[in-house]
User: Fold Alcohol dehydrogenase 1 from Chelydra serpentina.
Amino acid sequence: MAPVSIVNVTVLQKPVSIPGLMCPFISIQIVATGICGTDDHVLKGSFPNMDYPVIPGHEGAGIVESIGEGVTCVKPVIPLCLPQCGECSSCLNPDTNCCLKTHLYESQNLMPDKTSRFTCKGKQIHHFLWISTFSEYTVMPDSAIARIDDDAPLDKVCLFGCGFSTGYGAAINTAKVKPGSTCAIFGLGGVGLSVVIGCKAAGASRIIGIDINKDKFTKARDLGATECINPQDFKKPIQEVLVEMMGHGVDYSFEVIGRVDTMAAALASCHLSSGTCVMVGAPPLGSQISFDPMLLFTGRTWKGSFIGGWKTKDSIPKLVSGYMEKKFNPDVLITHTLPFDKINEGFELLHSGKSIRTILLY
Ligand code: PAD
Ligand code: ZN
Ligand code: ZN
Assistant:
C-alpha cells in the first residue's frame, strides 16, 4: 500500500440527523490531534477492514461546532475511538469496555447510518474509527464524544484520546500491576512509555523497557524504567534473556509494538505460572500467531487491552480532571508540535524514531 496523501483532501458535510435513528451525530471542530502508531498502521495498509481513501486520526481534542437533535453535549470534548453507548451488554458489564455498538462490529469506514460525511472533488472519502481527527471538521456519533474540563489545554489532553489512556490503563486496569512486582514493556513509543508510567504509578519495583531504538531509553528511565535493553545486543532470544535476568520471568509483560514475534516473546517472558502478558500493540492485518501451548498450560494469563480497558465516556473526562489536578503528566510524551499542514513531517519523525508524540495544531 502506497502512503496515503492526507493533506487538503477533506470537505465537511454538515451533520445530518437521520429520522428514527437512535444515534445522533455531532460535528466537532478539532483543535489538536496526536499522531499514534495506529495511524501509521493505516498508512501502511496493515490495519484490518480498511477502505481507502480514508481520513485517519483518532487522538484529538476539539470543540463542539454544532449539535444534532436530542444531543446536549457541549464543548470542549475528546473524540472517543472506542465509543461507549451505555446500553449494550458490554457497556452494562463492569469488566469490559468493548461496546458492542461500535466500529468493531460493523464498518468503521462509514458512520453508523452507513453514510460518509467526507468528500473530495465529488468522491467519497471514508471515516476512521468513526472519528477521523485528521480533519479540522469531523462528524461523529454522540456515543463517541466525551465532555472534558472547560480549562483543559486541548493541545495536551488530546493524548487522553488514545496513547496515554491506552498505556496507563493497560498497566492499571488490564494487568492490575501490584506493588513490588516486576514488569517488562516491549516497545517504548508513546503508548509503551505510558505503560511505564502506569507500572510506576502502581508501585512496580522493576520496570524493564525493551526497544531496538536506544534513543528511547533516556525518557523511559526518566519515567520510571529501572533497566532498558535492546534485543539486538543479545545473541539469545529476548525472552530467554528476560527469564535469566528475573529468575523465572517477569510478573507482567506488555507488547506495545504490534508484531507477532514480539507478542510471542512477551508471552514467554512472563512467569511460567503466575505471569500475565498484555497485548497492546495492534496485530498486523491478517496475521496469525503460533506459540508453544505449554506456555499457557502452566498457568500464564494472556490478555488483550483496548484503550486501556477504560469505559471511555465515563473515564476519559476523569483522567483529564486528574491531569488538571497534576496526578499524571503525559506532556512529557510530546516531543514535537507542528501545524497540521506539516503532518507528513510528523509521520517522518515517527518513522525515523525521533519523536514520541507529535501534536498537530489546526
Ligand atoms: P510507536 O511507533 O511510537 O512505538 C513503537 C516502538 O516499538 C518504537 O519505539 C520502536 O522503536 C519499537 N520497536 C519496533 N520494532 C521493535 C522490535 N522488534 N523490538 C523492540 N522494539 C521495537 O507506536 P505507539 O507507541 O504509538 O503504538 C504502539 C502500538 O500500540 C501500535 O501497534 C499501535 O497500533 C498500538 C496501539 N494500541 C492501542 C490499543 O487500544 N490496544 C491504542 C493505541 C495504539
Ligand atoms: Zn492510537
Ligand atoms: Zn455499548
Q: What stands out?
A: The first helix runs from residue 37 to 43.
